[in-house]
Amino acid sequence: MTRTLSGLVLGTALTLAALVAPGPAAAQGQPAIVYGQTHAEAALSEALARHIPVGKMRLELDNRAVELRAPAGAAVEGGLRVENLYYSPVQARFAAELVIPGTAPAVRLPVAGRAYGTVEVPVLVRRVSPGDMITAADVDWVEVRADQAGSDVAASDAQVVGMTPKRGVPVNQPVRLRDIQSPRIIDKGAVVTITLETPVLTLATQGKALQEGGRGDTIRVLNTQSNRIVEATVAGPNLVAVAKPGATVLK
Questions:
Q1: What average pLDDT does the segment 182-189 reach?
Q2: Contact, 34 vs 66, CB < 8 A?
Q3: 229 and 238 in contact (C-beta within 8 Å)?
Q4: Is the pLDDT reported for residue 22 higher than 90?
Q5: Are 197 and 212 in contact (CB under 8 A)?
Q6: Which is nearest to 140 in space by CA: 158, 154, 121?
Q7: What single string gives the DSSP state of each residue in 45-72?
Q8: What percent of the chain has pLDDT over 70?
Q9: What gap in Å lies between CA 47 and CA 80, rounded to an integer?
Q10: Please, are residues 220 and 239 in contact by the beta-carbon 8 Å criterion?
Q11: How many Å apart are CA 150 and CA 156, to the nearest integer?
């Protein structure tokens, strides 16, 4: 009876020891490594950078509950790796696989979402009527997709301030360069002074504006003395400048 009890006690002790004994990973203090949304977005942003070279990248995962877990004790080699990446610039969508390197079998997770570059552009904060000058107080900045900010969209406040709308410019929307112009300082039909400056002399004669124009615009002007039409740059109120001798003569 005593032997039987001793055997039972010994068997129970061995069983308990197996249950509470630390495994290899626990003994080495190596818990499982978990990668979440932040790690996934960092890896994807780096991989997508060559597809989205312009602007500040915006990335949106379809499923933000991303979690990849490396088994305890796995010899993980670096951070997450992106494989089988596909990107559509037209739809601004991507699909890929996130992989924990060094795991066997490899721990993988398919992901998808949207990614695009953004830039800041100036917008009007109030409605400015045609003929009124746009001031710095009328301008603010908003972030838009880079592929929606083409060459016809104002990219700096210098392209907007001091201009006037040709027509109504929507508030808080990117400003199209074709919708603004320099304030008109020469009216069509106005008598103007045509100047020509060289390093050694300055010439001036009278003319008639055949087009209206703002400062910096090139307009057609009739030289009333020679009765020829030339192209000149608006330099001030009722003042135009011919760039060089032999300016283009228009029939």
A1: 90
A2: no
A3: no
A4: no
A5: no
A6: 121
A7: HHHHTTT--SSEEEEEES-----EEEPT
A8: 84
A9: 11
A10: no
A11: 13
Query: How many residues are listed for the chain in this entry?
Result: 251
Q: What is the pLDDT of residues 96-141, one digit of tens each?
A: 999 998 888 889 999 999 999 999 999 999 999 988 899 999 999 9
Q: Which domains does the chain have, with CATH numbers?
A: 34-116 (no CATH), 119-181 (3.90.1210.10), 184-250 (2.30.30.760)
Instruction: List all residues 6 or more positions away from 6 whose beta carbon is below 8 Å from its beta carbon.
Output: none
User: How do residues 78-93 score in pLDDT, each as one tens digit?
Assistant: 789 999 999 999 999 9
Residue 110 β-bridge partners: 97
Residue 83 in tokens: 């494989």
Tell me the C-alpha distance between 130 and 139, whole Å: 16
Confidence grade of residue 161 (pLDDT, cut at 50, 70, 90):
very high
Instruction: Return the structure tokens found at 223.
Output: 């030289």
Token pair, residue 168, equals 């109504």
DSSP element (H, E) containing 204: strand 202-209
pLDDT at 1 over 60: no
- Give yes or no for a cis peptide into 24 (omega within 30° of 0): no
Question: Is beta strand 213-214 parallel, antiparallel or unpaired with respect to 218-223?
Answer: unpaired
CA distances from 11 to 19, 21, 23, 194 (A): 13, 15, 20, 113
**What's the token pair of residue 177?**
């360069």
